[in-house]
């Protein structure tokens, strides 16, 4: 087991082991860099994952206290659970469904293409699709994305059959999509056995997760020290404004200080800005790397919602991959629909326990009971679309509430933008038409779940005054401090974010290793 | 407790313990309905009992009837609703505040029903239930029930959810993940054949 001393200031410290941090750790180790990877959660395995929704939720979810504000319905339904993301080695790659779609070219130029939209804090990415393409290709190969690299698509389940037929009838095309789930054995991982518990941790390892790909690969190099159960409280810096290390609570609750040559933050888009804000100092009174004032702002979560429909005959939607099919016919830009940006429709299923929890939070009575009575005859899909960045949608430190470490809890504030509302309405209408085309008896428009796509709170910008990091994820203010997760997103795009987070991490690792070699870092 | 805790969840076969008598606390008992064939197949005995830790029998019965009106599944056996009562009873045993909330809530139900909530006709029960929506008592029972009622093997059997795939035969690749017959199959481009099948 590799282990580094706390005062070893030659290591790169990465905070968070999910799609961004876990990938970055491996990519750096492969290039000879020494890495200390701090993960707040504990290590599970495909052997310890549980095919039980509530039990797995307790095992994997980030359940530390958070508060919510704003007019989004999540604040009412789940006031202390704004996000459904993970606190475990592998982060939310243990829980994600696997959809792996590249951005569209225009989505990197949202400000230029969508124009100035009232209330939206749009900005172009300092990056193009062309620049990212080679890294997208590497990410797809690494993750084993179906329908790339000659990997066949996955077989569709019953939920997909309903979705496909409805989609076809209303003029859409549906396929089983590009998924980071093995459709055949690959990279020493098995093929999908259609358990139907993708959200609870994949029991065969067919679904890509840093837990059993990137992290063990990094450990094999002998350059990675993974420290689990370690919650970072602040990042420290010297008089010159360079990061010197991090202070964290270890698995025994003991405060530790790890020195570092470079610090990379990948705690997901709530914890990452929270950590920068908690690292405020005399030199950085508004929070570390926050000269722009944009740390924590422009919080995006995708314009989501679900539609479930009941039929005369059985579906058994819970059998097989949780996200089994994708329609991209509304993903393009067409302002004639009454909104900018686009959305995907992706099949989704919930087991009986989570259907009860999420169908209509707070709901009860005959209508609710009738929906549950028809559970076996139900099909479902999820809407994922681009939401608008707004300065007032933001992560702040709560004035009085503290977590188990005595640290201020993050508050997550979100209001839908009128564009988000128009898009969701359109998507509900189209999804209803899709299911009615194949004989739906009743259609249920289900409100957004707590956010799994958390983005934009340390956004990338060409100019330091517009955002927090440059095109490499390097903070404008602190040269040896990087943001390595979805917080970097300048705008949200419509696609599920994991593939792009992994792509950016591969590219960032090259940059960091190069800069370290040339002694620029 | 039952020797078959998995199949019948937390409910025991009837067995009145000496301790229960001494404490004067109650026992909620029932018999699986003849129509509950899927549950009868799971259960070691058609009779069930819940030994109460904090609430009395009348309150437990009233709460069970209240759950039945919040989530009215007319064909779902009382034995499943009793699992909600079990959760509420345990919460009451742990917290005096919760116990007060529940016992005062039950008193309110009786008052609103003109004396005996549990014996009131369904229409009356539904009107009373609707009048309480949003109150802390209602929210406590609803919030407990929305988890406990649907997160157990009996509910899974009743509603037709197959639960833990890993324990019950593995993935659905060879057992019905794409067995839907009432719609045409997708093209192989949209949905390729499964590996090894």
From TrEMBL, chain A:
Residues 389-505 form the Glucose-methanol-choline oxidoreductase C-terminal domain. Gene3D superfamilies: FAD/NAD(P)-binding domain (3.50.50.60). Signal peptide: none annotated. Keywords: FAD, Flavoprotein, Oxidoreductase. Residues 86-303 form the Glucose-methanol-choline oxidoreductase N-terminal domain. It holds the Pfam family GMC_oxred_C. It comes from the Bacteria. Belongs to the GMC oxidoreductase family. This is Choline dehydrogenase-like flavoprotein.
UniProtKB/TrEMBL annotation, chain B:
InterPro entries: TAT_signal, TAT_signal_bac_arc. The lineage of its organism: Bacteria, Pseudomonadati, Pseudomonadota, Betaproteobacteria, Rhodocyclales. NCBIfam families: TAT_signal_seq. This is Secreted protein.
